[in-house]
């Protein structure tokens, strides 16, 4: 299929990435994943908005207007005839002789924007039955609000989960639950949905923001207050959200059953409400 490099669609096979691209050498860049449902981009504006915010926080100026980027991404999805899938997009600080400090303006280094599409089915079966998780220490830096390419701690946590036969790693800082390795985490007690506040300890997920709206619209208490591992293990229900996992029930954590071991009433209701938003 086609990909985007800079401001153009081109064949994937023709593009070359410079060995000294700073994304490749330093993880010096930011990214987004956007879902495509039945050929339509879901919350594209929000994702592209966050991409510009993340870039700004690390002092990258994207050499493209947001409207132009949205246009290009829509063209890409149409051209590749994506039905149920996703778009991966990233911006790096560009290619320059390797040295930690930013390239000087004189070097005329330009940030590199790339994007490509994937066909991915919705995780219907997993959403219906729920998945298992492990807990892991959150060893990331203190700017988790930036969707940066530096994902090594996330990769290591997800691998721990995978090796334990689990779907996600729930991260905590000395007992305070932050988020998942690639998702946001929620507990449900007495009809109240609770999650970590959107500060520098977590990525404010676009799915999280959609869920928040959905709770408000349906008079479901949505509480942004951090909780502990103890709260996690005692919760009536636990679930995670992300672009690719949508609203995913967690039915077992570190080998211990959550609730009665099946997706709870609240998470099933939220899934139904979310479903109405996306199609
Ligand atoms: N991950 N927290 C982290 C650390 C994430 O990496 C993600 C998304 C989320 C959820 O954000 P959103 O609802 O906007 O997808 C929370 C993407 C999907 C990924 O890296 O593949």
TrEMBL record:
Pfam families: Aminotran_4 (PF01063). The keyword Nucleotide-binding does not apply. Its cofactor is pyridoxal 5'-phosphate. One of its GO terms (molecular function) is D-alanine-2-oxoglutarate aminotransferase activity. It is an enzyme of class 2 (transferase). Gene3D superfamilies: 3.30.470.10, D-amino Acid Aminotransferase, subunit A, domain 2. The keyword Electron transport does not apply. It comes from the Bacteria. It catalyses: D-alanine + 2-oxoglutarate = D-glutamate + pyruvate. Its EC number is 2.6.1.21. Keywords: Aminotransferase, Pyridoxal phosphate, Transferase. Belongs to the class-IV pyridoxal-phosphate-dependent aminotransferase family. Homodimer. Acts on the D-isomers of alanine, leucine, aspartate, glutamate, aminobutyrate, norvaline and asparagine. The enzyme transfers an amino group from a substrate D-amino acid to the pyridoxal phosphate cofactor to form pyridoxamine and an alpha-keto acid in the first half-reaction. This is D-alanine aminotransferase. The lineage of its organism: Bacteria, Bacillati, Bacillota, Bacilli, Bacillales. The gene is dat.
């Amino acid at each position: 299929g086609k990909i985007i490099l800079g401001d153009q669609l081109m064949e994937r096979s023709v593009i070359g990435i410079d060995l000294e691209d700073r994304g490749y050498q330093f993880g010096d860049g930011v990214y987004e994943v956007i879902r495509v449902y039945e050929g339509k981009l879901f919350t594209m504006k929000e994702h592209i908005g966050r991409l510009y915010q993340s870039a700004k926080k690390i002092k990258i100026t994207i050499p493209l207007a947001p409207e132009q980027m949205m246009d290009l991404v829509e063209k890409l999805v149409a051209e590749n005839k994506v039905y149920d899938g996703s778009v991966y997009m990233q911006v790096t600080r560009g290619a320059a002789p390797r040295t930690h400090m930013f390239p000087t303006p004189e070097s005329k280094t330009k940030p590199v924007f790339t994007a490509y599409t994937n066909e991915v089915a919705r995780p219907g079966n997993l959403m219906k039955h729920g998945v298992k998780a492990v807990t892991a220490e959150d060893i990331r830096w203190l700017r988790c609000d930036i969707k940066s390419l530096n994902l090594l701690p996330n990769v290591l946590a997800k691998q721990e989960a995978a090796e334990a036969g689990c779907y996600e790693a729930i991260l905590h800082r000395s007992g305070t639950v932050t988020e998942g390795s690639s998702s946001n985490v929620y507990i449900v007690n007495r009809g109240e949905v609770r999650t970590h506040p959107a500060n520098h300890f977590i990525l404010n997920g676009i799915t999280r923001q959609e869920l928040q709206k959905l709770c408000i619209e349906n008079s479901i208490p949505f509480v942004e207050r951090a909780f502990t591992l103890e709260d996690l293990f005692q919760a009536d229900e636990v679930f995670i959200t992300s672009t690719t996992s949508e609203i995913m029930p967690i039915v077992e954590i570190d080998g211990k059953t959550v609730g009665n071991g099946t997706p709870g009433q609240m998470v099933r209701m939220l899934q139904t409400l979310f479903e109405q938003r996306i199609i």
